[in-house]
Amino acid sequence: MRRSIILCVVVAVGGAFASATFAQISQISWSQSVSITLRGITESKAAPYANLLNFNESVQDSYPTENASSQQISSVTAPMFMSPGADVSVGGSVSFQITAPLDEMETSSAFLMTFTLDSPATFSLTENSNLESAPLGGDGEVEFPGGQLYVGSTVNPPSIIPNIDTLWLQQGRLTGNPPLTYSGTLAPGTYTYDASAFGNGDIYEGGSVTYGTDFQLSPVPEPVALPLLGMAALAMLRRRGRATRASSLIATL
Questions:
Q1: How many helices (H) and strands (E) does the chain have?
Q2: Full-prediction pTM beyond 0.90?
């Protein structure tokens, strides 16, 4: 009898511990796109549906005095409603060059993901970029601010993750930057992850940047196994005490 009791306790506690390690991602959606605008004409390719787990697209065009390109390779591994969480890889490049007084030019590689956690999860983000050439002048720019993580379902500052451009400018480096890594814990709630790069300019401007990111979510085990183990041990002790008292009573008769 005692052996069967111990077996039942181990099975119950083991089952509870296993179920406690599952982090719930109740909702997740993402969109990917690349786009360029030259001479007022926009060319783009997009994948706005979450069933496309891998995205590998590029757009480019050129004229004698201007050229632009945008490219993105992304993949999403995100099982819904169960562990182990999510793994999101996004990389790409944007570039443009204008050598004559022309209309404003734009290029972008956009990735946006919104997800809801029903239980706590840890995150890690590794990212790098290489600003191959800066804008020639004026108000033109090429930028990859790094993967940005916002609380809620919209892209609103401030981000949980620092702006990668600001950090590198403070360090006095504009090209050949080493990878940066961030980590932390997210409470249950809705979050938006943005891994996008863009460029724009008009007269005699240009620039290009390449980038890569890897964003991961992992479950946080809930500490339920120890309380269950304590309750099971207490129940065993009480049962053993009753059995001992019964044996003593029988011995006195």
A1: 3, 13
A2: no
